[in-house]
Known about the structure:
Layout lengths: L8 H10 L13 E5 L2 E4 H9 L3 H4 L5 H23 L6 H23 L8 H15 L4 E9 L2 H12 L5 H8 L10 E6 L5 H9 L9 E3 L2 E11 L7 H30 L2 E3 L8 E3 L16
Antiparallel strand pairs: 1-2, 3-4, 3-6, 5-6, 7-8
Helix pairs in contact: 1-4, 6-10
Amino acid sequence: MPNKPRVTAVAALLVVALLPAAGHGAEGGGKVVATVNDHPITATEIDQRLESLPPQVRGQFATGERRQQLVEQVILGYLMSEAATKEGLDREKEFKEGMAQAKEALLARLYMKKHVAEEGQPSDEELKKEYDRLLPQLSPPPQIHARHILVKTEKEALAARKRVVEGKEPFEAVAKAVSTDPSAAEGGDLGVFGQGRMVPAFEKAAFALKEGEVSEPVQTQFGWHVIKVEEKKENTPPPSFDEVKPRLAQQVIQDRYRTQLKTLADTLKAKARIEFKEEGADKKEGGAKQEGAAKKEGAATK
């Protein structure tokens, strides 16, 4: 699945707790869930604050401990606000500027809520199409579990290989005895890795081996390697549709939301004249006449 930008739960919790809700306190109606110095905080107010969160994280705070955390953060936000007012901070220039910005943010949120529809659950047919489209990305890439011995010269590498192949010494024991790589302490164990992690010559030789096979000496910029593949993981089946269905549904909903938001933004920009005044960003946008701008760990790892 492609990585998407995320809003962390902690950041979202702090932001939404300090934002004003559309309805405030008991006036918003609903069950009172807490009081702070006789000021009621209602379930409706908490729900309104939740609505300000992006859809992808909103569900995390809807019930249980996370919702209670949000209530506690709202209480803390109210206490801070009350203390700040007593100290006269509401008369500061910074506060007045912040109020103007908060007004803009609230109006923007209400505008988005009005013009960007909440997306319903996608159908199984739609999700199956998305599953088929993403199947190559869902399939685990080939991986191997390998060990290696690293020495300075080809002669040393041939001698180490001979001890393993002809002398029947355990690969791990020879690695511990002669390898100069940090992995020697673990018998040359490099763990499980996929393509793209090791230097090209090492990777090519390692992935060409069969399970249990020991390579001929391989030269890289680090020296000479003797490689043994313990296990190959090449035919791991992709997760089933049912396994990834919840993630796919969430992704489809997010993609629809972003598409709607982009369309709305593009429409507004097309009707406006936007000029960037900062250095390096002096270009113009909008529906008015467009003007051009004047101005890995161990010696085998990459």
